[in-house]
């Protein structure tokens, strides 16, 4: 029985140099600038947050790209 090895995968796991001609699909080409929130957002999001369950609150913060600390400052 013959065993085949994928050298590209093995090289990544061992820290060896890999072919850099192919872009990594998990890395965005450009970084996004920080999101800016309008005054309407800063009033809408906390009022919406108050009426949600715990799981829904987490989903709202993830959807809006916020940390809870920013939300607390806006309240």
Principal-axis shape: elongated
Share of helix, binned: 40-55%
Strand content: under 5%
Query: Based on the structure, what is the oligomeric state of the protein chains?
Result: single chain
How large, in whole angstroms, is the Cα Rg? 22 Å
Tally of extended strands? 0
Order of helices and strands: HHHH
Please state the average pLDDT score.
77
Give the structural class. Answer: mainly alpha
Give the low-pLDDT segments.
Answer: none
| Major beta-sheet overview | none
First CA to last CA: what distance?
Answer: 66 Å
The number of distinct helices, counting runs of at least 4 residues, comes to 4
Structure description:
With 75 residues, the protein is mainly alpha-helical. The chain has a domain at 37-75. The chain is built from four helices and no strands. The termini are far apart. 0% of the residues are buried. The model has no long low-confidence stretch (mean pLDDT 77).
List the helices and strands and how they pair.
Blueprint: H1 7-13, H2 39-50, H3 54-64, H4 68-74
Structure keywords:
75 residues, mainly alpha, 4 helices, 49% helix, elongated
Compact overview of the structure:
It contains four helices and no strands.
């Amino acid at each position: 029985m013959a065993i085949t090895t994928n050298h590209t995968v093995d090289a990544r796991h061992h820290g060896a140099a890999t072919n850099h001609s192919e872009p990594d699909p998990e890395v965005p080409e450009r970084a996004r600038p920080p999101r800016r929130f309008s005054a309407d957002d800063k009033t809408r999001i906390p009022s919406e947050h108050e009426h949600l369950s715990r799981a829904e609150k987490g989903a709202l913060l993830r959807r809006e790209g916020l940390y809870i600390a920013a939300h607390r400052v806006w309240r």
